[in-house]
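Let's practice the habit of predicting before peeking. Look at the sequence and jot down your guess about where helices and strands might fall. Then scroll down.
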Amino acid sequence: MNDELQHLKNLGKTSAQWLHAVGIHSASDLRRLGAVGAYQAVRSRGFRASKVLLYAIEGALLDMHWNDLPQDRKQALNQQLAARSQSSASEK
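Done guessing? Here is the structure:
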């Protein structure tokens, strides 16, 4: 099977399966949702993904290894995630 997601940097079989399970099947789907949205979708589906998946998705979108993301970019992703999590919790 030719899986477009697995051709992106940082994304392997398991992360691609998780993304497929939440309706993300292509790089354009991933770009549309963004790293934080895609990560939240995976987590809300019950998969036990660590923050490395968040960084891996961002790295895939930027075509760079997740560990090479600047620390300030990782902090910005974490802040976006926290803000979205808080707004989701307040809507419930």
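How did you do? The chain has a mean pLDDT of 93.
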